Each structure stands twice: as C-alpha cells, then as structure tokens.
Amino acid sequence: NQPRRTPLRALLSVYDKTGLTDFARALHDSGYALVSTGGTQAAIANAGIPVQHVEDLTGFPEILDGRVKSLHPAIYGGILARRDIAEHNAQLAEHGIGTIDVVASNLYPFVDTVSRPDATLIDALENIDIGGPTMIRGAAKNFPHVIVVVDPADYGWIAERLAAGEDLTQDERRSLARKAFQHVALYDTTISQYLGEDALELDETTFGFSRLSTLRYGENPHQQAGLYAAPLSSGGIVRAKQLHGIDMSYTNYLDADAAWRVVADFDQPAATVIKHTNPCGLAVHDDQPTAYRHAFEGDSVSAYGGIVAFNSHAHRCDRAGNARRPVRHIIAPAYEEAALDVLRRRRRTRLLEVQPASGPQEGLDVRLVSGGALVQQTDDIAESPADWKVVTEREPTDAELADLTFAWKAAKHIKSNTIVLAKDNTLVGMGAGQPNRVVSVHLALRIAEDKAKGSVLASDAFFPFADNIEMAAAGGITAIAEPGGSIRDDEVIAAANEHNIAMLFTGTRHFRH
Q: For 438-495, how does the pLDDT look when each residue is reduced to its tens digit (9 = 90+)?
C-alpha cells in the first residue's frame, strides 16, 4: 500500500515571483512534476516549463474569484500524509492521491495594500491570504517529509542540493519549517493589528517585526543584535535614512531614538544633546542655531561627543559658536544642502534623516521581563499648565511658568529619579537615575553651577522630604514643579514658602525606569 507518487511533486503558489522561474526550472530538471495556481502557473508556463494547473489535480475549478482553489483533499492529503505511517499510505492509494514533496508559497501583500492612503476595508479583506497560509502551515507541520519554502532567498541553495541528488537534512528542513511558521505568524499579527490597534484590549497579543539588518553586536561585543521594523509602522529611527557616516551600532540606535523622541515632543524648534539615552543638553528657541548653542552650553562637558537632534530642518550652524564640537551623529527631519555640504566633511559623524513614527505599536511601551513582558501605554498624556495648582504663597512669574513648562516636559524623557533645572527654555542641569531624589538635586546643581541661580526645577515625582527644597533653595532655585502627593507635602510646601519659592503641583507623575 504505497502512495501513488510516480514522479516527485512540487506545489508552487507565490505572490512574490522573485526567482520563481529559475526555481521552477531547477525543480523540473531535478525530476519534480510541477503543480501551480493562477498567476504562478501562468508565469511558469510562459517560461516554457511544464506545469500542471491545480484544478487538474483536484478535479475542481477555482471558485469565488480565486478565493477557493487549493483547499482540497487532493492537495492537503498529499502535503500532510506521513510517509512512515502505513495507514496514511493506504488511504492515499485508496483515493488516488499522490504525495507533494516541496511546497513553495508566499502571501498576498497585505501590508502594501493597507499602507496605501486610499485603501478601504474591502481592499484589506481581499488581500488576506487563506490558501497560502494553509499550505505553508500544512507543509511546515509535516517538514520531515515536505520541504517548505517561503523565502525566495532560499531557492538557490535548495535547488543546488536537489540538482545534486542530495536530500535536505532534518535540521535544514526544521529550520525552513520554523521560518515558515514565523512567516505566517507575522502575517496574522499584522492583520490583527490592522483590525484593532489597542493591544491592551485583548488577553492574548503578539508583536511582529521583520529584520532590516544584522548589527555587528549588541551593547557589548559578545552580544548578537539586529534591527527590526514593525510591518505596519512608518517613520521613526528604525526607518531613518542615513545620509552620511559609518554604520550604526546597537547603542547608536538607542541614543538616536532617545534624542528623536525628546525633540519630537516639542512644538517649537528644539535641539537636544544625548548621552546614554539621557538629555544632557536641551533647548527650544524660534531660531534653530540659537537652540543648538543653548543646548550645548547647558552642560558643555557632557555634550562633548554626544548625539544631536533637531525637530526642524537642520541649518548651517557656524554662527552657533560650537559647530566644530565633535558629535557622534546628527538627527533631523531634513537638511539644507548648505548644512549637508559642511557636515559631510566629518567622516565619522552619522547624519540621519528621520520622519515622525506612526503605526499600531507607536502608542505602546513593551519591556521584556523574565518569563514574559510588561506592556503599557506610552507616557504621552496631554497636560496644560493651566491645570496645575499653585500651593505656595507666591505664584510663579510668567517667565518662571514658561521655564517650568519646558522643564516639566523635559523631565519625562530622563531616567528616574529625575531632577531638571531650566532657565530661558534651556536645560542647565539635571540629575538622573539616582536611588534617592536628594542626590539627583545635588547632581543637577553641581552640573549647573552658577547657572542654577534664578533657574526653575522640575521633579518627575513628589519630594518625600523637605531637605530637597532646602538644597534647591541654597542653589538659587526660584520655582518648582512636582506632582505632589507625598504624606509630607505640608512640610515641603512650608520649606518652599520659607525660601520664597513658587511651587506648583502638576498632579501627574512621570517616572521613567
């Protein structure tokens, strides 16, 4: 009771026809009878390669505008039958079904379709592949007996092995099956995200990414790393256009993303300098070169060798006074040609052109933890200083309120415990990542030095003790914004009143771990 398998048989049904005819010819020359569907069958036949239409094998025509063409026992029996089970072979023989030994398939271009501005829901639904994923999953399930191919990049080496009369090893078959299941999983994840963007609504969720490049290493040389993109997303650092400079590293991407997120949060022209994902310099000003100069002067020591980002077209900044200061890379949504001419003279400085990111995953913050993941909404709550509460005897001046608004927005981009000192819409000192808040205040004042006098302070969370206020007052701070909510708020407010400091409670915390 052996299955009817007079020749070896390969089923080819692909949307992406890259390398198709060469692969089909190689299979034919290696003794495989070819079976195919629709446009794939036409492409192979037009190349002069013998190929059988799938309906000749099933005895049933394509129906419903091609929605049903391969869903038939003559196809799936041949794919799913285990050759090492006698009963399976007997059933194939009883029903006149031959085995299928190679399945090559890739899927309708769902992402390309829904990315068109004029794409409708009907367009999206019509580009959800049904037969392709089913064939791929069936072949991958039975990989010990069926070679499944979803990536045209694999055609060449598989064809060479089969042409030489060599079978694929079980490890190679298993690897192809893994790739196939992942191909379908990403496809299904993309469809789910298109139908509803809020992953937190569901008890089950997946996140899908496609590798854009392999990086030399991760944070350290012994760690492997890669750069991946979300299929339905556009813009952002992942899809940045590199205009100049050496290849980006893992930490370069981390710092670049931090820099871009900071400046993208401001409406006014903004410039920032990033070191180890924290802004050590940040300023906003209607004149971009001025913002650039102020950002560097906020902490000129730390700014050396930093990452610079703008949220507006990059201009020539010769008159900024620090145009020759070394920077690792510069990020902007666009560059003036005069700026590019100057910046391209810096051999090691990377120039990135970045557009705002959009897509279903942009509103989420995903952290892998042992055994799973933490998922939360990104910290992009809309806030207005008009909603803040003045809790001290003295109200802030208009200038202090403007600086507090700037400092408060800056604080949410710096690692907790966060203290930001600002003056004239410029970050003049910051303390980040400390185990207690008073140390962050101390560090911010030490960095600011004389610039602390007359500056304002923002704290990402409440002050647990009044000693923070005493230290701030000694450094010359005149106004403070913090969330409030401590059991010692009364003591903190009293200390602020004692030193004639204006204090506002924002009612919102901005932890960043």
A: 999 999 999 999 999 999 999 999 999 999 999 999 999 999 999 999 999 999 999 9
Closest of 343, 23, 253, 50 to residue 152, by C-alpha = 23
Q: What distance in Å separates the CA atoms of residue 186 and residue 8, rounded to the nearest whole number?
A: 31
Under the phi-then-psi rule, with left for phi > 0, alpha for psi from -120 to 50, and beta for the rest, what region is 66?
A: left
Candidates 141, 179, 442, 499; catalytic one: 141
Could you give the dihedral angle defined by the CA atoms of residues 25, 31, 37 and 38, in that order, rounded to the nearest 10 degrees? 30
Contacts of residue 513, defined as CB under 8 A and 6 or more positions apart, other chains included, come to 415, 416
Q: State how far the Cα of 266 lies from the Cα of 162, in Å rounded to an integer.
A: 58
Residue of 17, 28, 276, 442 marked catalytic:
276
Distances (CA, A) of 18 to 22, 25, 265: 9, 14, 42
Please give the DSSP secondary-structure letter assigned to residue 367: E
User: Could you give the CA distance from residue 100 to residue 146 in angstroms, rounded to a whole number?
Assistant: 7
Q: Which of 115, 114, 180 is nearest to 146 (CA)?
A: 180
Residue 373 token pair? 């993941």
Residue at token pair 């200083």 = 385
Pair 357, 234: CB distance under 8 Å = yes
Phi-psi region of 293 (alpha: psi -120 to 50; beta: other; left: phi over 0): alpha
- Quick one: 403 exposed, middle or buried, by C-beta within 10 A (0-12, 13-18, 19+)? buried
User: Does residue 141 carry a catalytic annotation?
Assistant: yes
Please tell me the pTM assigned to this model: 0.85
Query: Which residues, at least 6 apart from 26, have a Cβ–Cβ distance to it below 8 Å?
Result: 155, 159, 162, 163
